[in-house]
Amino acid sequence: MADTHNKEVDQISGVETTGHEWDGLKELNNPLPKWWLYLFYVTIVWAVIYWVLYPSWPLISSYTSGVLGANQRLEAIQAYDDVVAGRSEFADKIVAASLEEVAADQELLQFALANGQAAFGDNCAPCHGSGGTGAEGYPNLQDDTWLWGGTLDDIHTTLEYGIRAGNDDTRIGDMPAFGRDEILSREEVNQVSNYVASRAGLETEDGVDLAAGETLYVDNCAACHGDNLGGIQEMGAPSLTSANYLYGKSLEAIKAQVNNPRNGVMPAWADRLDPATIKSLTVYVHSFGGGQ
Question: Where's it found, cell-wise (predicted)?
Answer without folding.
Answer: Cell inner membrane
